[in-house]
Each structure stands twice: as C-alpha cells, then as structure tokens.
C-alpha cells in the first residue's frame, strides 16, 4: 500500500521506496528496521563507485547481525544527504527513491551495492 518494492535472494533483501514530497517523512531504514526488532548501529557514510552512501549494522535481541546500506536516487543522481534530495525535490520536482539493501555479510552487501549503483558518478548531487 505504500509503493515499496521488495526484491530478495538468499542472504539479501533490497527495498526500493518511492519518493515523497520534500516536506514529508520517508520510510527511513532507521525507523523501519527498529520496528522490525533491530538496532541500527555503526552508521557511516562511505564512498563506492564515486557515490556516497550510508552503511550500518543491524543487530537484533538474539545478537544476529545484518549489514545494510541506503541512499537516495533520482535517475543517475545518487546522494546519501537527505538535505540534497529534499532541495532537489523542492526546486526541480525530482522524486528521489530510497534504495535500502540488507545482507547477511558485509562482503555480500558491498557486491550487491555495486550491482545496484549506476555505472558512473559523473552527474551526481553530493
């Protein structure tokens, strides 16, 4: 009902969440994963393929760890910065989707993120 698309394969979950107006709340992974019983920890911004994205570890009460990454994307434009996508949405009407990838290992996360990011960071908003 919220327009979220989920893809999965063994060890990986990929969510594509629709863009929202610049003034609206989004389906942020910090909130969604907490609602699913996970703590969102070790959050940091990293650079992959020239793009800045956010990575984190998810830990549940049983001590299970999953690895997650997210970013905001409009066509070839990718940003980890919420202010950037909100400004672009306000000024230009661009609708940035949120991409959230979660895997069972850090190596699988990096491989899946590389597969999902556009080929070149030449035209990004950082």
Indicate the topology.
Layout: E1 5-9, E2 12-17, H1 29-35, E3 38-48, E4 51-60, E5 65-74, E6 77-79, H2 82-92, E7 97-103, H3 106-116
Antiparallel strand pairs: 1-2, 2-7, 3-4, 4-5, 5-6, 5-7
Give a verbal description of the structure.
By secondary structure, the protein is of the alpha+beta class. It has helices at residues 29-35, 82-92, 106-116; strands spanning 5-9, 12-17, 38-48, 51-60, 65-74, 77-79, 97-103. It contains three helices and seven strands. Strands 1, 2, 3, 4, 5, 6 and 7 form a seven-stranded antiparallel beta sheet that branches. A hairpin with a 2-residue loop joins β1 (5-9) and β2. It is globular, with a radius of gyration of 14 Å. The model has no long low-confidence stretch (mean pLDDT 88).
Helix coverage percent = 10-25%
**Overall SS class:** alpha+beta
Give the end-to-end Cα distance, rounded to a whole number of Å. 31 Å
Cα-atom Rg, whole angstroms?
14 Å
Mean pLDDT: 88
Task: Give a count of the beta strands, DSSP E runs of length 2 or more.
Answer: 7
Largest sheet: 7 strands, antiparallel
Parts with pLDDT < 50 across at least 5 consecutive residues = none
Fraction of residues in β-strands: 35-45%
Q: Helix count, per DSSP?
A: 3
- From the spread of the alpha carbons, the general shape counts as globular
- The helix-strand sequence is EEHEEEEHEH
